[in-house]
Amino acid sequence: FNFQGSSTLNATFFIFGFNILYRFFLPSYLSNEIQQDCGQMLNDVYEIDWLDANIKERKNFIILQENLKKPFRLVAAKMVQINLKTFRKLIKAIYTLYAVLQQIKN
What we know:
mainly alpha, 106 residues, 4% strand
């Protein structure tokens, strides 16, 4: 952005875009990391030598494995999944809106 003699539209969109980055990147990134870690954890639990464990521990391992089979998804408003793919779509939509408003302005 060129802030020398910039219009209010540029400044507004810069602040809006930075706010979106600030508020949504970290949850998106962490959600993505948790999803990957849950997949790895399922493999790690399977590789544990659970045959030597007592009956209660075996049952706990089975329950843990079954729970880890369900993919972890961070969801906003029970509709939108929060992850890096959604974050990229959000950034693209913001830029598209900015470009449209720039064309309308000119």
